[in-house]
């Protein structure tokens, strides 16, 4: 007996069959929970005073796609390599030292540091916020000197299932001491 050809399913039917990707959940404004842990698309850190900080890459799960992070500071000046002022920067795990220092200077009202995970796509493109891209952000106990620390676990987008071991990094921010210069 001949089989009848399958009819194509509508997008609505497909969505009801498979779970939504992280990006589909973010796009719908949903609070995203994966295996009991909240997932962020962008890490947002309010910055009230000038501060210094660093990113420390800890591990990555696989060679490809090459994972990394992007950062920018809204309503503040972002400084890398002690004197390079820029609006933001992208840093890949394989192309930078494991420890990347930065400063956030001259924060104005509502200054905000944004951090999100990226990966190198096909043909060298920089991709973010696709399919199952997201971050689990664990804020750690602040230090007595006002130092703030986070452990961040990232899932790169091209995964069929979220995997928050694609990139793991630590970020730290500490207030800058006022200079003695007049």
SSE layout:
Blueprint: H1 11-17, H2 22-27, E1 32-34, E2 37-39, E3 43-46, E4 51-60, E5 67-74, E6 77-80, E7 84-86, E8 88-92, E9 99-105, E10 112-120, E11 126-127, E12 134-139, E13 148-155, E14 167-175
Antiparallel strand pairs: 1-2, 3-10, 4-9, 4-14, 5-8, 5-10, 6-7, 6-9, 10-11, 12-13, 13-14
What structural class do you assign from the helix and strand content? mainly beta
Helix count equals: 2
Helix/strand order, N-terminal first: HHEEEEEEEEEEEEEE
First-to-last CA distance? 91 Å
Fraction in beta strands: 35-45%
Number of strands: 14
Morphology: globular
Q: Which radius of gyration do the C-alpha atoms yield?
A: 20 Å
Main sheet: which strands, in order across? 7-6-9-4-14-13-12
Q: Which blocks of ≥5 consecutive residues have pLDDT under 50?
A: none
Model description:
There is one protein chain. This protein has 182 residues and is mostly beta strands. Helix content is 7%, strand content 45%. The chain has a seven-stranded antiparallel sheet, with no helix packed on it. Strands 3, 5, 8, 10 and 11 form a five-stranded antiparallel sheet that branches. A hairpin with a 2-residue loop joins strand 1 and strand 2 (37-39).
């Amino acid at each position: 007996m001949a089989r009848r050809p399958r009819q194509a399913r509508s997008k609505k039917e497909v969505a009801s069959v498979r779970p939504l990707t992280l990006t589909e959940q973010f796009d719908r404004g949903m609070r995203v929970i994966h295996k009991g842990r909240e997932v962020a698309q962008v890490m947002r850190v309010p910055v009230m005073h000038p501060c210094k900080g660093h990113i420390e890459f800890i591990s990555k799960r696989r060679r490809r796609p090459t994972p990394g992070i992007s950062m920018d500071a809204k309503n503040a000046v972002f400084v890398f390599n002690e004197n390079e002022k820029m609006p933001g920067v992208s840093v890949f795990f394989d192309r930078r030292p494991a420890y990347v220092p930065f400063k956030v200077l001259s924060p104005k009202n509502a200054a905000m540091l944004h951090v999100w995970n990226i990966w190198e796509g096909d043909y060298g493109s920089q991709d973010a916020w696709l399919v199952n891209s997201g971050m689990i952000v664990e804020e750690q106990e602040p230090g007595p000197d006002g130092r703030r620390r986070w452990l961040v676990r990232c899932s790169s987008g091209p995964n069929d299932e979220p995997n928050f071991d694609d990139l793991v990094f630590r970020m730290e921010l500490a207030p800058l001491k006022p200079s003695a210069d007049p």
